[in-house]
Specification:
2 domains; GMP Synthetase, Chain A, domain 3; 3-stranded antiparallel β-sheet; globular; 3-stranded mixed β-sheet; 148 residues
């Protein structure tokens, strides 16, 4: 017997105008202005779809890793920088790659905890819901550094 649960997240927006205008997005806990980024010859007002995708991937990754470390009884502080690489070819924009640069600061830097932390840093990317949604379309890699 299946124990399936669905969660529905709703976003509202509207767009009045052309390519170089802006709009507001509203979710339960997210409100932001959006537009095309300056790097893509837009007005650069507020955030943009590229940053939103990167923030979704990064936040899902770090939350997944924190939960996995907690379940493994490995206490750590996590610092993450994620890079989103968008490629432009023949005026076609493609989200090519996301690189998660994770630093794991262990409270107990035993060899065992280092091995667990490194393994979970890679596993968290594979199990994150956003990473799964992007699989086959965006390459996601993890650059992991472990410290005490």
């Amino acid at each position: 017997m299946s124990n399936k649960v669905e969660h529905i997240f709703k976003l509202q927006t509207s767009w009045d105008g052309g390519r170089n205008d802006s709009s507001e997005i509203h979710c339960e806990n997210l409100k932001s202005t959006i537009s095309i980024p300056r790097e893509m010859d837009g007005p650069g007002i507020g955030t943009n779809p590229d940053e939103l995708l990167l923030s979704a991937a990064a936040s899902c990754y770090i939350i997944s890793l924190a939960a996995m470390l907690e379940r493994s009884n490995v206490k750590a502080r996590l610092v993450l920088q994620s890079d989103g690489i968008v490629q432009v070819e023949n005026n076609i924009f493609t989200y090519k790659q996301i690189i998660h640069h994770i630093e794991i600061f262990l409270q107990d830097g035993s060899d065992s905890n280092k091995r667990i932390a490194r393994r979970l840093a890679l596993k968290a990317e594979e199990t994150c819901m956003i990473s799964k949604a992007l699989k086959g379309n965006v390459e996601i890699t993890v650059d992991c550094k472990i410290a005490q």
